[in-house]
Design goal:
Largest interface: A-C, 34 and 34 residues
Number of strands of chain A: 8
Strand order of the largest sheet of chain A: 1-4-6-2
CATH class of chain B: Alpha Beta
Mean pLDDT of chain A: 95
Shape of chain B: globular
Structural class of chain B: alpha+beta
Family (chains B, D): Belongs to the MoaD family.
Strand content of chain A: 35-45%
Protein name (chains B, D): Molybdopterin synthase sulfur carrier subunit
Keywords (chains B, D): Nucleotide-binding
Mean pLDDT of chain B: 97
CATH superfamily of chain B: Beta-grasp domain
InterPro entries (chains B, D): Beta-grasp_dom_sf, MOCS2A, Mopterin_synth/thiamin_S_b, ThiS/MoaD-like
Structural class of chain A: alpha+beta
CATH architecture of chain A: Alpha-Beta Complex
CATH topology of chain B: Ubiquitin-like (UB roll)
CATH superfamily of chain A: Molybdopterin biosynthesis MoaE subunit
Distance between the termini of chain A: 29 Å
Oligomer: heterotetramer
Organism (chains B, D): Henriciella pelagia
CATH class of chain A: Alpha Beta
Order of helices and strands of chain A: EHEEHEEEHEEH
Radius of gyration of chain A: 16 Å
Largest sheet of chain B: 5 strands, mixed
């Protein structure tokens, strides 16, 4: 399942529901991305996430499909916030379930690399010194490149 | 009329998130859209950057891609969520 | 924190408490291991986990320390069940928190490979056809070997 | 008296989880403990397998490691949790 919404969500509750549905799974991996309170220089006040529907949803659905083709997953779940968030708020949640742990770890890692570098979102950070649009770091693109198959 | 959308930092640069424009006859592909709007808005090349991709009617396209009045044309600076 | 106990635990609750404590984290990864209902041949009725205290706890504490030396973690949490469990029960929970996601993913993966192959536990599966002690799979040892530094 | 512990499948093989034994004078290291207990219990080599490690007083040791009455000696078949 995929949910893009400007409403806050509870990652633990999402994990609980996901695990209850993942019948037969031996391994469940979750990733929760939280708004950090520190930008490079100053304290973060707000993080704003912009999406472009339905391109954002379509792209995430394709990445999820690619993960299910590549790894023997029982299920996966992706939640992504949009709108204004405060430090400590959950921005993103990815959960994967499989019989054994390697598939669950790799698929969650793969989906997060997609979400960080290719999902159709833009992020704006507000600190005491003003607002700034944030783009992926060089590490993010490097992480994403790990999944390219030759 | 075509609908032009500016995402991320481009909405700061253009001062708007979207605008309705009537494409001149000479503007029939995405490369021409970039040059025309960049010049119209005196953006000094912000819409010409290679890192800014264009989506036409919800699909990312490669320049030059044909456009026409009625299309939704979106300028997408580098994306990334999480 | 480390908890080895014969009492059931709720992985979602553990994630919730862990995330609340992990101030400043941008990334939280969790792994939950569940008792699977299918053995190679037949339906699992019970899984029994035996530990050898305090060797089990000491070994896990050392692995956790190694993870914190190797990755910039804000915190980590390990829960492991002992005693008798039924299909669907949580056996193991690992959570890691860091500023960025790579450290959290890798440290959780590393800790799980330790728990699967080196933690001092023995597992006995009961099915309709009898009981059987379960040892790590070849894949588990291969996964574990990934972390050896030359 | 030494305390001998048998973990995992070894408790099935020996029929017991632990036993108190008085080590004979000739049994002064872990290699000798393995051979002696394997023979005493007619285990046909189960305690001699290389994959079975010994822990003395809570520390995994390498054969031959000195043992004495009063030690806790544990036979550990291959471990693994999760």
């Amino acid at each position: 399942m995929i949910r893009i919404s400007d409403q806050p969500f509870d990652a633990a509750e999402a994990l609980s529901e996901f695990t209850a549905r993942a019948t037969g799974a031996g391994a469940v991996v979750s990733f929760t991305g939280l708004v950090r309170d520190q930008a490079s220089s100053s304290k973060v006040e707000t993080l704003h996430l912009q999406a472009y529907s339905p391109m954002t949803e379509t792209g995430i659905a394709e990445a999820r499909k690619a993960a299910h083709e590549r790894w023997p997953l029982i299920d996966s779940h992706i939640i992504h916030r949009t709108g204004d968030m405060s430090p400590g708020d959950a921005i993103v949640f990815v959960a994967t379930a499989s019989a054994h742990r390697r598939a669950a770890f790799e698929a969650a890692d793969f989906l997060m690399d997609y979400l960080k570098t290719e999902a159709i979102f833009w992020k704006k950070e507000t600190t005491a010194s003003g607002t700034q649009w944030i783009e992926p770091r060089a590490e993010d693109y490097k992480d994403r490149a790990r999944w390219t198959r030759s | 009329m075509a609908e032009i959308l500016y995402f991320g930092r481009l909405s700061d640069v253009t001062g708007t998130f979207c605008e309705q424009v009537s494409l001149p006859a000479s503007v029939s592909d995405t490369s021409a859209v970039r040059s025309w709007l960049d010049q119209e808005n005196a953006l000094d090349g912000a819409l010409l950057e290679a890192s800014v991709r264009l989506a036409v009617n919800g699909e990312i396209v490669t320049d030059p891609y044909p456009v026409t009045d009625g299309d939704e044309i979106a300028f997408l600076p580098p994306v990334g969520g999480g």
